[in-house]
């Protein structure tokens, strides 16, 4: 999708359709909208869409009046949804060139960026494996602006939207097409394109490093594991902080010997969504160039019940020397993250954020609206929450109290990999804390938010690409 900024009145922009946000309780007199407000046909409610032909005073072939809700509630997140819903509506009608008229009251950089992000995100379809020739997409999206200076915001919006779709495309790939090695190839190609350092650790390296927890998960599969490391260095760093982004990259989770039920198991191709989000975030970071050093660490494995697979009761030794009793082989995410966290610390990361589709329990706790957020200290919690709020990617803090460690006691090893029936998201986070040790760290459990089971007006069904934007904002806004 080609993104442009057109510095002219919206009415003069040429496009097959011009999106015009209209607000609740505010009778809009532009482009023939007044009559619709007067007749009660339009109220301006969020995402209410009305398509007009031959609207007066516009060059565009059509006008799409797009409900924006109450003006006092309108923010960048609403703008993103509005533009996404409008784009999805228009492309279903085979329209290919679209412009959006920024309302003068909501024409700041965040709104401009969000309008573009929404359009790019709305245009994404998880249809890469459909062979039909009836695929629809938007070719051109223009921002009609009355005031100059929105180019940088437009660029940022494009970079963020494309990075998030890059992540969604990775998550959308099924496990036969996205093996750990294929994920490393995708990361390598991306790094080469955008000038990031990239190193891929193979099984031999991991054995030498003593990554017994990660390797224990990988052993049941014929697909070899990898640890993908991506590095970004600012030209001039503002401080000494080094942010480490660690993401769960289980390309398929059968559960292993503690095998999952068949019903719905196909969805477990998305168990690498945390890792894909880190790779997507690095793609944007490489282009937006924050002043902080950032590295990503993505352990990729396939969790399979092969004849060499680890068994319940097995005891593995993690890279930091701790022994783990594997009570349930389906709690594999925390095992691979354990060694990735240790490795990130040894590489000099001063602050860590991990994202993982880690537990079904977090979906029970927060449904699909909020990711679970666990923080080892308030400073990191506040940084990540501020970024998540600014980006409209919702997260909710859950407890990380040491008292919960009780549940992870093992009679035979230093720690067990599961903590019993209750508080599953909390005990999983507490397990990870043993490996983040004293490094300021936030864990995001995205099991409920990385995948949409039903489409939204502004987003297709399938991978959401969360929390790419939050991570990028965290790096961009970093102050030591
Ligand atoms: N990948 C799953 C978590 C998951 C479950 C994500 C359902 C999305 C939907 C993870 O590896 C897992 O299987 N976790 C177990 C942990 C349990 C064995 C302690 C779970 O949540 O059931
Ligand atoms: Zn599992
Ligand atoms: Zn898993």
Question: Could you explain how this protein is built, in words?
Answer:
The chain is an alpha/beta fold and 480 residues long. The protein has two domains: 2-143, 3-Layer(aba) Sandwich (Leucine Aminopeptidase, subunit E, domain 1); 170-476, 3-Layer(aba) Sandwich (Aminopeptidase), CATH 3.40.630.10. It is 34% helix and 20% strand. It contains 13 helices and 20 strands. The strands form four sheets. Strands 7, 8, 9, 10, 11, 14, 15, 16 and 18 form a nine-stranded mixed sheet that branches. The chain has a six-stranded mixed sheet with strand order 1-6-5-2-4-3, with helices on one face. β15 (371-375), α11 and β16 form a beta-alpha-beta unit. α4 packs antiparallel against α8, α7 packs antiparallel against α9 (333-346) and α8 runs parallel beside α13 (468-476). The model has no long low-confidence stretch (mean pLDDT 97). One zinc ion binds at residues 253, 255, 330, 332.
Write a compact overview of the structure shown.
It is built from 13 helices and 20 strands.
User: Helix fraction?
Assistant: 25-40%
CATH structural architecture of the largest domain: 3-Layer(aba) Sandwich
Q: What is the CATH domain class of the largest domain? A: Alpha Beta
Q: Label the structural class.
A: alpha/beta
Could you name the CATH homologous superfamily of the largest domain? Zn peptidases
């Amino acid at each position: 999708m080609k993104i442009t900024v057109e510095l002219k009145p919206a009415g003069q922009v040429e496009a097959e359709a011009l999106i015009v946000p209209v607000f609740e309780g505010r009778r809009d007199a532009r482009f023939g909208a007044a009559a619709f407000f007067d007749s009660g046909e339009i109220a301006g409610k969020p995402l209410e869409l009305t398509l007009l032909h031959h609207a007066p005073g516009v060059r565009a072939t059509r006008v799409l009046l797009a409900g924006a809700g109450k003006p006092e509630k309108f923010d960048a997140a609403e703008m993103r949804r509005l533009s996404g819903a409008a784009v999805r509506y228009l492309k279903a009608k085979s329209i290919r060139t679209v412009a959006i008229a920024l309302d003068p009251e909501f024409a700041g950089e965040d709104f401009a960026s969000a309008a573009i992000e929404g359009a790019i995100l709305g245009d994404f379809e998880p249809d890469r494996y459909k062979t039909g020739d009836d695929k629809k997409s938007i070719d051109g999206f223009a921002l009609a602006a009355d005031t100059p200076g929105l180019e940088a915001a437009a660029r940022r919006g494009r970079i963020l939207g494309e990075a998030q779709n890059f992540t969604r495309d990775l998550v959308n790939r099924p496990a036969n097409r996205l093996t750990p090695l294929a994920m490393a190839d995708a990361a390598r190609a991306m790094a080469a394109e955008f000038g990031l350092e990239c190193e891929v650790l193979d099984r031999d390296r991991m054995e030498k490093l003593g990554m017994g927890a990660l390797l224990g998960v990988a052993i049941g599969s014929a697909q070899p594991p990898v640890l993908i490391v991506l590095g970004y260095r600012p030209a001039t760093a503002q401080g000494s902080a080094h942010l480490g982004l660690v993401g769960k990259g289980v390309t398929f989770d059968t559960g292993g010997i503690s095998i999952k039920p068949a019903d719905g198991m196909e969805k477990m191709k998305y168990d690498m969504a945390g890792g894909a989000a880190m790779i997507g975030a690095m793609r944007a970071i490489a282009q937006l160039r924050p002043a902080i050093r950032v590295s990503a660490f993505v352990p990729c494995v396939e969790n399979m019940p092969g004849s060499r697979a680890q068994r319940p009761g097995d005891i593995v030794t993690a890279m930091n020397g701790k022994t783990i009793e594997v009570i349930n082989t389906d709690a594999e995410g925390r095992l691979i993250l354990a060694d990735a966290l240790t490795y990130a610390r040894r590489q000099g990361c001063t602050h860590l954020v991990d994202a993982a589709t880690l537990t079904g329990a977090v979906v029970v706790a927060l449904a699909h609206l909020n990711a679970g957020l666990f923080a080892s200290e308030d400073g990191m919690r506040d940084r990540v929450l501020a970024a998540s709020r600014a980006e409209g990617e919702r997260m909710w803090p859950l407890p990380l109290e040491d008292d919960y460690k009780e549940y992870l006691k093992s009679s035979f090893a230093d720690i067990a990999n599961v903590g019993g029936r209750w508080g599953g998201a909390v005990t999983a986070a507490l397990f990870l804390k043993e490996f983040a040790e004293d490094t300021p760290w936030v864990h995001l459990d995205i099991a409920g938010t990385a995948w949409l089971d039903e489409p939204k007006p502004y987003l297709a069904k399938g991978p959401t690409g969360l929390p790419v934007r939050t991570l990028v904002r965290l790096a961009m806004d970093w102050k030591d």
